[in-house]
Amino acid sequence: MGNDIKKDRLMELDALRGVAAMAVVIFHYTTRYDELFGHKKQNYLGFEYGYLGVNLFFIISGFVIFMTLTRINSLKEFAKRRALRLYPAYIVAVVITFMAVRVYDLKGRGVSLGEAIINLTMLQGHILIPHVDGAYWSLTVELTFYLIMGLVLFLGLSNKITTISLLWLVTSGGIMIISDMSNQRLTTFVEYLAISNYSHLFIAGIMFYLIRQKGQVKHHMMILACLMYEYVFIDINSNFFVTIFFMLFYLLVNNKLNFLNMKPLVFLGTISYSFYLVHQNIGYIVINIMEKYGLINEVFLVIPVTISVGLATLLTFYVEKPIRKIFHNKSKSKRKTTSIDLTKVDYINEQ
Q1: How far apart are CA 218 and CA 210, in angstroms?
Q2: pLDDT tens-digit series, residues 92-122
């Protein structure tokens, strides 16, 4: 396959992001809400495994971040792109969510003003400060992955990524084994730094990108190793869905996911980062209010979903994209444009 990433391929990745985001949202509004607050309706339908949409996000992130890494010239440029992708919408989401939870007094979900200010750095997870919104845990994982990729770029080792990925996977496995055996805080901390619970997902994403570019046997073997890692170290529920995700990506790299190229899914993928940022606590508040007024049927979840989509649309098109456009306009005279708009391939998270 050629080196250029086709536009429709990116749209398919957007569609997958949209599916992953909606899965996480529905999980939070059904199963997770029930665990935290209890739905007033008996036998409320749940979406127990929707949280695994975050795993799909991590695979997508591995694919896209390494693709971006191969198309930039410096660590400084990589850091700027990441910061512009992550922080504008995030900072506004933190402020909105903190204020909403404080005003409504959503029990058990609030943080102090000082903790909220620290949250603005996005580093709260690394220093064990509570998140303004619990969904932000995945951003800690994403930031760690970016740091690892930034180090690879800084050391000029992008062309050795398969070897580095193998070493990372083996090291992660060793950490997982030692952590399970010792159950010590130190090994847990090392496991946290190496993101050992998720390293195989990011690595798989990288390998799928390389398969699409080169299709060498070693990349397929790494995918198999990542799947084996999943089955050895991660729980059985995750095993099934990650297997499905890997199958989807094999279809993706072989141009077999064109059916996902639908405007609603692509749009949802476009706003998925902001959607993820604002949906959880704000959605809980909306559901809480709804159920106080007797709107207890599952069908009424369309209300918090619509509100979250609306907020996410505003954040995406009136905060994130304008700020990135300003930066792009200031910088385009200093660098050559590539054959692809990289702003279309900056994916999260998470979660």
Answers
A1: 10
A2: 999 999 999 999 989 889 999 999 999 999 9
Quickly list DSSP for 173-214. Answer: HHHHHHHHHH--HHHHHHHHHTTTTTHHHHHHHHHHHHHHHT
Position of tokens 């060498």? 216
Q: What does the pLDDT look like over 178-214, one tens digit per residue?
A: 887 876 655 566 777 789 999 999 999 999 999 999 8
Tokens of 249: 């990506």
Pairwise CA distance, residues 330 & 190, whole Å: 40
pTM: 0.91
* Number of C-beta neighbours around residue 289 at 10 A: 13
The answer to whether 207 touches 176, Cβ cutoff 8 Å, is: no
In angstroms and rounded to an integer, the radius of gyration of the C-alpha atoms of the chain is 20
Average pLDDT for the chain: 90
User: How does DSSP classify residue 197?
Assistant: T
How far apart (Å, rounded) are the C-alpha atoms in residues 248 and 60? 11
